[in-house]
## 1
Amino acid sequence: MGDQFASIAGTGPLLLAIAVAAAAGLVSILSPCVLPLLPGYLSYVTGLAGSDLDARDVPEAREPAEGAVAVKTRISGRVLAGTGLFVLGFSVVFTLLLTLVANIGFALKTHQDMLNVILGVLVIVLGFGYLGWIPGLQREVRISKLPAAGLVGAPVFGAIFALSWLPCTGPTLAAVAALATTSGQTSRAVTLSLAYSLGLGLPFVLFGLFFRKLLGVFRAIRRNSRWVTRVGGVLLILVGVALVTGGWNHFLVWLLTTFNFGQETLL
């Protein structure tokens, strides 16, 4: 019975874990240390200035309709390629990190209870840091040498973003890593890292494609981004406390016995 309990608790419903990972990525991009930099990132990975992005949405009156459509198509294609390559760059780094963490979890499987406590304490500390209560945990590591702006350097810049901004994205990424580590399965770690990367990257791609239309939404979220951080920090602390006390395992068992997720949701 004990082995069955550990198996259910450690694996958990994959759909729930994917939703948590995607939400963690969304919280990361809405945080005050990432959100204000999105316009600069967008310009860097596409090689386009803000006026170029505006030109796509507001065609010049003197240009023929065919010319305006061609300009829109060219710029939109460049934006999609640049943002997609940027997301690919940090997705590879996050996937490698979570895969490493999951394999460490597999190696320490016999000490699962102790591992959960350690992970829980780490997530709690990072949650306090996300709330700004621990100085220095939201500082990024500056890298002076950057690749050339444009499509060629976009994936490299994405990888640099993943590494240099770990102090900022680390708290939410740690929660996803905790979900991956409890199972110690590489395939689950890859799935959760991709979900986290999509939660972080998809809003960036949409912001690039609908730059002018989403500027108002961007400014509104930016004004209230600290609330997003506070809610995210509180949720991280709750997840950490659940891991330390064993409440996370009990929650997963209750979830699986109450709702029919089916075997296909387990990995």
## 2
Amino acid sequence: MPSVQHASSAVHQPPLAAWVEASVPYLADLSVKPVTYNPPIGTGVARRLGNYRDFKVRIHNARPIAKDLSLDRQAFVLTQHETAVRDFYDRDEIRRVYDPEVEALVKRETGASKVVVFDHTIRAADRGVERGHRAPVRSVHNDYTEKSGPQRVRDLLPPDEAEARLKKRFAEYNVWRNVSHDPVEMSPLGFVDSESIAPRDLAVCDLVYEDRVGEIYIGVYNADHRWCYFPRMTREEVVLIKCYDSLKDGRARFSLHSAFDDPSSPPNPKPRESIETRTLAFFD
């Protein structure tokens, strides 16, 4: 029975290390303007321009300090979140069941008065593109910029409502979840503590799709970045990542994250399967 296998594998898991050392792809400098060309989902992998290099970083196990983390300081938090979704590959079930769950979660964690769930991306480390999904992203990045954050509001809301909402605080949060019944063993997600990010570390990158051009931030290497992750994430846990905040009062406004190869993974790790859900949160 699956439950017996899960319990057995958990018993034999080695203790978690305080930190691991891994390589993550940063921009080494801005000698080449970063541009990412994204093909339609399931048709190929992204093509990136830019002076990327792998840098070794120390990535700390943040589980012992999870309760001390804040969306307004570090820009990411781990929280327990049960879901009634049976099949995360069923788009109709995602719309009917998961969207309301995520909306309630983001309201609970942020105090927002309105939350709009607007995008889901399934990532699979095993033949993700062949199966019509995307592969884990291996570049230090943030999903929105000073320009593209407000633009997303205008893209998604009626014009009058969008302009009214833009006059008050709003934020964009990603909700990241393991959709497998096994803990994450391959390509976990690492996060940079936003308090260690300097403005010069965020480089605007054009994101080119078939039908539009967007913007994201790519991380420029800074040895002062403090990296964290939550090893062996289960299906009942989610990470909220703040990717944009309109308030400029000293709180975290942007973040950086990337998938990486965890050297503490077992020799034959189970391929990661995850879903990231993008939301806009509006505050009165």
